[in-house]
Amino acid sequence: MRTWAEFVLRHRRWVMIFWVVMMVAGGVTSGATSNRMTVDFSLPGQPGTEAAGKIIAAVHNGGNTTPMLVTVTVPAGQTVTGSEDAIAKTFDAVGAGVPNVRVIDEANTGDKAFRTDDDRTAYAMVFYPFPQSQTAKPPTEPIRKAADAVKPAGATIGVTGVDALALGDDATGPGVLAETLLGAGGALLVLLFVFASLLAFLPLVVAAVAILSTFLMLLPLTYLTDVSFIVQFLVALVGLGVAIDYSLLLVTRWREERDHGKDNHDAVVAAMETAGHAVLFSGLTVAIGLLALIVLPVPFMRSIGMGGALIPFASVLVTLSLTPAILGGIGPRVDWPKIRHEHVASRGWTSWARLVVRHRWVAAGAAFLLLGVLFAAFLGIKIGAPSSDSLAKSGPAVTALHTLEDGGISTGVLTPIEVIAQKDKAAAVADALGAVDGVDAALVSDAPSSSADGRTVIVLVPHEETVNSTSVEVVKRVKEVADRTPGVLGVAGLGTAQVDFLHAVYGNFPLMLSIIALLTFVLLVRAFRSLLLPFKAVILNLVSMTAVYGAMVLFWQKGHGSDALFGIQETGAVTFWIPLMVFAFLFGLSMDYEVFILARVREEYDEGRSTNDAVIEGIGRTGRLVTSAALILFLAFAALATGPGTDLKVMATALGFGILLDATVVRSLLVPSLVSLFGSWNWYLPDWVARLLRVEISHPHREEPEAERELVGAD
Question: What PANTHER family does the entry give (predicted)?
Fold first, then answer.
């Protein structure tokens, strides 16, 4: 780090020019990068994806989408009975007026399941192709206009469905740029408090360069493989928080070295040797968590792993080159007005650390008690998809759904099961699968749009929405019967996708977890020159992850707060891909604070302090930094939570809560108490391990028990 710092300082103008070029190029190409990102949640090789592919190949729609439901409600005093022909013409107009859709209704199936109990409303299922771009919208409005143009006199048209409900009352959120600016505004307020000088703007400059450079690095990746559109949100907002955090750490240490009397050049070098070293290891831990997604057999999650890993990569590069280049030039001039000084540790955090060390058993017990309560909530987690009640609270889609529900139609129609079968055996297949427990109806349409090349698509309506690990049991039963029924070529639908995802992804989760834990452990052994500290760090991270999942269960799945804060009722389940995404990002991000704190504690111990003194000084020096960094990341995730869609809100709030939990309960309470309890065991590293990892040998130095007791009992 010293050699690199000296190189940057010698060539700081060229370093700054390089990053200006990268930033401009990233800004110019960001639109092209975003446009090349894909919307694809398929699971290649899984039965549901294979069946969906057969359905799309045959009829060019459905398979991997849930249908829109278009309703026709006749005026008061009239009934569907007697209006069948007019209603059929309305649904036929949808099939003719909206490209590439497949309409299933009473007219082409002969099934009266398509009308409500009061005989006032008829509905049809409209299957449509999966959107091929992130800007494409479900065909809600085209369907509504086509039906409205040919509706019976006085009738009311409604359109609902999972995608229509997810859009709510057409709120689209503020967009990536607005969310980033919102997060940056909150971060600036925190930075102004931390620095109390113009230096507050430096981390924001570093973050802007890092974000745009990441978009530039993403562009060639989009030519090598499909990159999920989700990555752009993560680059903008996670990149904002990570880059600011890293720059904040380095700049704070530079100020400290300056306040200790070093000239500017030596202060930059010293900051790079200490804080820069911690930034490097922090970035590697974040990248490890994300790159582990590559082992999962899911293209969109692999792309998030690869694209997401560029976030810490770019943030570390910019922080360890542009930041020292700026500090080495105009750093002292922009540290104005000089209100806050860093020559002594924070009094408040020093007092807090001394209190925790003195009452370490109580502190550790209180932290484990809180984590235990959240772990108990985690045991009740249901993996699936949000229920219809949680997707939207108002709007025309909700009104249409309530019309169906009030008329005795089960919400299972929102998530039908599609079965592709040989056309000559469709009737027999429908009879066999319609008899499965939990299936309300088996629908075979005689419309040309439902059949092609000797194949036809049968639609099964489950009694309940297939949105969680309990309600998908009907899907499993259907698949079991389908496997032994002649003529069945595949089973698809939302429920099938969940079953496949749980099997493919969570079946590989132990491998992903093992890779992350092992690589992180080895990396931290090198960083801390200890066996116990890295082991504790990995275990505490896993414990805090279960606590975050428990908070997700309480807040979203059970609705204790989601309705009050977002106006969204309990989801009943956590969307199947979110826990893995939260784990991949949060494992590394929360480990950042572990590295920040323990790197300073290790430094103080190496200078001759006792374990307790090192903990107190380390927390005193890093406490404000860690909480400020956590608050900045939290504000970035809060900005992300303003985006559209329940899933995005669930992921953003989980990440935000996880960061705050980790920076407060885990890193400010549990870590110092446990390090104090472990004493000299923290610093032991076998000589052969040190030689293997090419690090300095570490043996505990002699600590005076009497001095330790005096410290713990001191005021």
Answer: MEMBRANE PROTEIN MJ1562-RELATED, MEMBRANE PROTEIN YDFJ
CA distance 409 to 668: 53
DSSP H or E segment with residue 458: strand 455-462
Alpha carbon separation from 542 to 81, 373, 386, 495, 576 (Å, rounded): 60, 15, 25, 29, 19
pTM of the model: 0.82
In this structure, are residues 367 and 673 in contact, taking their beta carbons and an 8 Å threshold?
yes
Give one DSSP letter per residue of 385-411, joined into a string. Answer: ---HHHH-SSSHHHHHHHHHHHTT--G
- At residue 176 the predicted structure's pLDDT band, cuts being 50, 70 and 90, is low
Q: Residue 568: what residue type? A: I
Token pair, residue 100, equals 């590439």
Lookup result for tokens 């493989």: 225
Amino acid of residue 576? F
Give per-residue pLDDT as tens, 77-93. 899 999 999 999 999 99
Structural domains present in the chain: 1-35+196-343 (1.20.1640.10), 67-160 (3.30.70.1430), 344-402+529-715 (1.20.1640.10)
Are 475 and 495 in contact by the 8 Å Cβ rule? The answer is yes
- Which one, of 383, 436, 391, lies nearest residue 411 by Cα? 391
Task: Specify whether the CB–CB gap between 134 and 175 falls below 8 A.
Answer: no
Cα–Cα distance, 201 to 193 (Å, whole number): 12
Cis peptide upstream of residue 644 (ω within 30 degrees of 0):
no
- What does each C-alpha distance from 302 to 33, 231, 378, 471, 483 come to in angstroms? 18, 11, 26, 28, 30
Phi and psi torsions of 103, nearest 5°: -105, 125
Strands (E) across 552-609 are located at 574-575
How many residues does the structure list for the chain?
715
- The predicted-structure confidence for 639-654, as pLDDT tens digits, reads as follows 888 876 678 889 889 9
Bridging pattern class, strands 574-575 and 439-444 = unpaired
Q: In whole angstroms, give the CA distance from residue 446 to residue 107.
A: 9
Amino acid residing at 248: L
DSSP for residue 572: S
Residue 343, classed as helix, strand or coil, is: coil
